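Changelog excerpt: complex records now keep ligands as SMILES alongside chain sequences, and the structure block spans every component. Example after the change:
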Amino acid sequence: MDGPHVSVLLAEVMEALEPAPGKLIVDGTFGAGGYARAFANAGAKVTAFDRDPSAARFAEGLDVRLIEARFSQMAEVLGEGVADGVALDLGVSSMQLDEAERGFSFMRDGPLDMRMGADGPTAADLVNTAEQAELARIFWLYGEEKKSRRIAAALVRRRAEQPFERTLDLAEAVERAVGGRKGAKVHPATRVFQALRIAVNEELAELEAGLEAAEKVLKAGGRLAVVTFHSLEDRIVKAFLTERSGRMPGASRHAPPQAQGPEPTFVLLFNGHRSPGEAEIAANPRARSAKLRAAVRTEAPEWRAAA
Ligand SMILES: C[S@@+](CC[C@H](N)C(=O)[O-])C[C@H]1O[C@@H](n2cnc3c(N)ncnc32)[C@H](O)[C@@H]1O
């Protein structure tokens, strides 16, 4: 059996959020509770969210309130201006990846599911019913898969004879569609599996809504820390913080400040992102692509959704 999830960039997230007695820290992605435990051990009050009901077993014995919900719902659940810190550590946990029955892995045979939560359509539903152009769009946008159209066409041909039900069956079909492995370092189905996972869980829309929810939930002086694992996620976090901190993308640093537009709701805690050090990557290969961005909430009112 594989070990439990090892937290990524934990020391950096602790430094960014400064959990302490008297503070309320919201952990939007509880997982195995690695972050939440560290926040609680530092004396903070911790409220955590995870959309996966199976995360609850890791909350046993922890002084943490765990809510089974999406992190985009945190403002509705907790109210506005209540939190001193919000952490988001995106993506799937090692437990989700390692359990064949969850259907996330192209290396372990299981039902083609990929849902983090307990509801909504599965990856099999998507692969067996989406139009060919829609599948190609998903593989291209969410997997950055160059052979997206060729793969989509092959899957649509194959499902007409026999629908997809198992992960390895899909992985083999993708491998055949791209003409085998050809010495590639990563499995040819890696990008298709990533793309399906993002689509099934609506991960990018969730992230955008989650950042807006964090803007509501944080009090002035409260801090936001977000750990991403691929460029699609990081791009969204970077764009949100660039905009909300009043740095319009592409604007010259010598240009006068924006005369119009809402007041910035965040100040960056540091420029750019923090990455794991070599020691962390050597100990935990999953940390390799991780990036932390962090910011402090100002007193300005939250931005309303664009009309
Ligand atoms: C990388 S793990 C978090 C690990 C955790 N920081 C730790 O140290 O153990 C990500 C977790 O977030 C959950 N998750 C992902 N997207 C979510 C969302 N939109 N709302 C709530 N939970 C989500 C997943 O189910 C998974 O358990």
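The longest helix spans residues 203-217. The two ends are 50 Å apart (CA to CA).
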